[in-house]
Design goal:
19% strand, 14 strands, alpha/beta, seven-stranded mixed beta sheet, single chain
Length: 354
């Protein structure tokens, strides 16, 4: 089980969803957390790309349900609302082409169709995680890698080139789908790698890296962030989305102390990892003996993915500050606490610039 399963796309709607706010210029306010910048591309250039190369497709009565997709450059991007189409200059429903299921299936899954973000972004006006993810990604350009996207790839601007990496091949990921996820939404990894080491990714090769609900699965998060910086080009960006302890099944676990995270970085130890498994299955998914001891041992020996560490926004920021002072420096570090109601928005955010 993974905390992202409460963040799955909700499908097509002809009504305006909260993400519609992302189509407007949001002026900077007094929030200490603003500071995001919108797209470096002009609105005209972005619209030209959508209309010159994109096609709206729908395969009703298929595995895709009623979902409408913007298909562009071999990938399909789900459209969250009819209002989003109208904001981007499309006509609903006149511009939507009905196709057989096999046509839509021929396009690889990718993140949903984001709105257009320009100028400064005041995140104090954002009240849902879908919009916050769009705002974080709006300033990306060039090519990059998302690790662990699963069935919820990030809404990266369509002008960017995105590859996907995962520790498991596609057929194994299909066997690990969470309740509510669809096989047709699961990205096909372009490279087998994980966020722990990013093996197979050349140093200085990426304009951006994305790890959404991934870093909690790393044994040494400080080391993983340092490795990520090495893979980025100068000015490259690392986007991290982190489950908030108070809003997930980890709410009964204590915050991971900074001293523990430092130990995991300086002196990695498998026995310390075992303690994480004990805590996870004692407090997040409790069970009775003898099942508890057997499950902990089995999951530990098979290196089953768990949340090794837990943070809220302030605890994660403290780890980043220590990393900045003691391990490797970033030119900018932006963080933001969780937004909106706790039932539907379970994450906080960090964007680091090399």
């Amino acid at each position: 089980m993974n905390s992202t399963q409460r963040d799955l796309p909700q499908g097509w709607s002809s009504a305006l969803l909260p993400v519609g706010a992302g189509s407007s210029v949001l002026p900077a306010g007094n929030s200490p957390f603003h500071g995001l910048r919108g797209s470096p591309r002009s609105r005209q250039d972005e619209l030209q790309l959508l209309h010159a190369e994109g096609t709206l497709l729908q395969a009703r009565g298929s595995i895709f349900g009623e979902q409408v997709f913007l298909c562009l450059r071999g990938r399909r991007h789900s459209v969250l609302s009819a209002a989003r189409l109208e904001e981007l200059g499309f006509r609903w429903p006149a511009d939507v082409v009905a196709v057989p299921e096999r046509v839509l299936a021929s396009f690889a899954p990718a993140g949903h169709l984001p709105g257009l973000w320009h100028g400064s972004v005041d995140t104090s006006r954002i009240s849902d995680s879908t919009t916050m993810r769009e705002a974080m990604a709006a300033g990306l350009e060039g090519g990059g890698l998302e690790v662990g996207a699963g069935a919820s790839p990030f809404p990266v601007p369509l002008a960017c080139r995105v590859l996907y990496g995962d520790r498991l091949p596609h057929e194994d990921l299909l066997a690990e789908l969470y309740p509510g996820q669809r096989a047709c939404d699961l990205v096909i990894p372009d490279i087998l790698t994980d966020f722990d080491e990013l093996a197979g990714v050349a140093d200085g090769s990426q304009d951006f890296l994305i790890a959404c609900h991934v870093i909690e699965h790393t044994r040494n998060p400080i080391g993983s962030i340092a490795v990520a910086q090495r893979k980025l080009r100068p000015g490259g960006k690392l986007l991290l989305v982190i489950p908030d302890k108070q809003r997930t099944f980890d709410r009964h676990r204590p915050l991971t102390p900074l001293s523990h995270l430092i130990e995991d970085h300086l002196r990695p130890d498998r026995q310390r990892d075992y303690a994480h498994y004990e805590e996870f299955y004692r407090l997040s998914f409790p069970m009775q003996e003898p099942a508890y001891s057997q499950e902990v041992r089995h999951r530990f020996e098979t290196r089953h993915a768990i949340h090794y560490h837990v943070w809220d926004h302030d605890a994660f920021r403290s780890m980043l500050d220590w990393l900045q002072d003691n391990v490797i420096g970033w030119s900018e570090i932006w963080t933001h606490p969780a937004v909106g109601n706790a039932q539907e928005n379970i994450e906080h955010y960090a964007l680091l610039t090399k």
